[in-house]
Amino acid sequence: MYPALLSIHSIVRWLVLLSLVYAIYRAARGYFSHRPFARADNAARHWTATFAHIQLLVGMLLYTQSPVVKYFWNNTKAALQQRDITFFGALHLPLMMTAIVLLTIGSAMAKRKKEDREKFRTMLLWFTLALSLILVAIPWPFSPLAGRPYIR
């Protein structure tokens, strides 16, 4: 089960990032050029939220199975002295969950707005906040929180 989840996670995380960037692009383009909120804009909003929710479920399953996280919770005092273990044990999940909550709120609010420009503005604001938080929560090789190579 664990290797299959890792494969799904690897695919879906890129779907989340790509769809989020694409949805932000569509929202910015629509907002600044006063376009009508088209079916493709709604699809970008919808699929971005859907991919994020799938990733949340897969991520929560992986979190519960992770040997790094298990070590963190079983040896918290020692684990807090190790930056990477602290990041994955205590920071990564809450940051990503908060990003998904922001994205979900933005998607739901945009869906309910009456005017097209307000739909774009809402998507642009909330999705950009979510993406910003996701970018902070990714263990980039250059991150001060935790470092992972680009390709493992």
Task: Describe the protein.
With 152 residues, the chain is mainly α. It is built from six helices and no strands. The chain is elongated. 30% of the residues are buried.
Compile the SSE list and pairings:
Elements lengths: L1 H31 L6 H27 L1 H8 L1 H4 L3 H30 L3 H22 L15
Oligomeric status: single chain
Q: Identify low-pLDDT runs.
A: none
Query: What Rg is obtained from the alpha carbons, in whole angstroms?
Result: 17 Å
Structural class: mainly alpha
Distance between the termini: 20 Å
Strand content: under 5%
Q: What is the 3D shape? A: elongated
| Quantity of strands, as a count | 0
Primary descriptors:
152 residues, mainly alpha, 6 helices
Task: Compose a concise summary of this entry.
By secondary structure, the chain is mostly helical. Helix content is 80%, strand content 0%. The chain is built from six helices and no strands.
